[in-house]
Design a protein that fits this description.
Strand content: 5-15%
Largest sheet: 3 strands, antiparallel
CATH architecture of the largest domain: Orthogonal Bundle
CATH topology of the largest domain: hpI Integrase, Chain A
Strand order of the largest sheet: 1-2-5
Number of strands: 5
CATH superfamily of the largest domain: Intergrase catalytic core
Length: 318
């Protein structure tokens, strides 16, 4: 019956090992961005390969995969677990397509859920303080915190991407830093965009020829490197701000994107416009990613509804 339905899988096909199928799966992932490929390869090498490489695909069961998740990832973050599980499940998707197994028994396993934490946002005063503390990199920090660009997008900007008449920059390329080297690529389709830049911020940006980097090391046409955690110029500036202000949050350069969203919302910007500026796939993603910014709106809803109820009772009495 399976042969008639085209579902028959020869028992010998299941003898192919997970490691052998993984090579096909990894080869297919080479079309992704280098940073994505690298994280998947690392997850395979560190977490999946030691346990499953020599295992025949036909002998892997749902229960065994669940036991692996339950026992081998104690103390690991949900992100690490989910990525490793995704690697194994992806490998078995290939095994199904290659008719090595009838079904992907790795799917449907229970994995820990990511717990979304609150973002840290800088106030206007805190932003001014960290910009001042960053010295020669202050203009770069101010640019990130007022445009919402990712660091890799910002350092990918060339002179030709800056429109000083319209106060805009065009995002059409981005750097990914892999170890000590850079990989230049293009953003996803929804991340290629025109972004408004405050006129005062634009004035602080260097005038460069069309093919030169806007944000470059002094005297060189090379993008500003990512500041190293804990010892880099950005972290040291943040540490000085925290020492001077007990309410100053410990932030990373990426957190400046959330500050940009915060400042835009505080000035009444449209959520759809903010979504386009920061390069989110949808306004829903913007609302979800920075949902904690809208807590004050909930208070406003409560006040408004209280007024409605009060008017109802007043009308009833009159």
């Amino acid at each position: 019956m399976q042969k008639l339905r085209g579902e028959y899988v020869a028992p010998s096909a299941g003898l192919k090992t997970v490691g052998q199928v993984a090579m096909d799966w990894l080869a297919q992932k080479q079309a992704l961005k280098p940073s994505s490929t690298r994280s998947l390869e690392a997850s395979w090498r560190i977490h999946v390969k030691p346990r499953w490489e020599k295992e025949p695909v036909g002998k892997v069961t749902h229960a065994r995969v669940q036991a692996w998740i339950n026992s081998d990832f104690k103390g690991k973050s949900p992100t690490v677990v989910i990525r490793a599980y995704g690697v194994l499940a992806g490998i078995f998707d290939v095994a199904v397509r290659e008719r090595l197994v009838n079904a992907n028994l790795a799917r449907g396993v229970v994995v820990p859920r990511r717990v979304k934490g609150m973002h840290d946002y800088l106030t206007k005063e805190q932003l001014r303080a960290v910009v001042d503390e960053c010295g020669p990199h202050g203009s770069f920090v101010l640019f990130l915190a007022t445009t919402g660009l990712r660091r890799g997008e910002a350092v990918g900007l060339l002179g030709k991407h800056v429109d000083r008449k319209r106060n805009r920059v065009t995002v059409e390329r981005a750097y990914a830093q892999l170890g000590s080297r850079y990989e230049l690529g293009s953003p996803k389709s929804h991340e290629m965009r025109s972004v408004p830049v405050p006129a005062l911020v634009l004035e602080r940006m260097s005038l460069v020829v069309p093919g030169a980097h806007v944000w470059a090391l002094k005297g060189k046409d090379a993008p500003i490197p990512r500041p190293s955690p804990e010892s880099g110029w950005f972290d040291q500036a943040v540490a000085r701000c925290m020492k001077a202000d007990k309410h100053f949050p410990r932030i990373s350069p990426h957190d400046l994107r959330h500050t940009a969203v915060s400042l835009a919302i505080s000035e009444g910007a449209n959520v759809k416009a903010i979504q386009r500026t920061v390069g989110h796939a949808s306004a829903a993603m913007t609302l979800d990613d920075d949902a904690d910014l809208f807590d004050e709106d909930l208070d406003a809803v409560g006040v408004a509804m209280n007024a409605v109820v009060g008017k109802m009772w007043a009308d009833a009495v009159s």
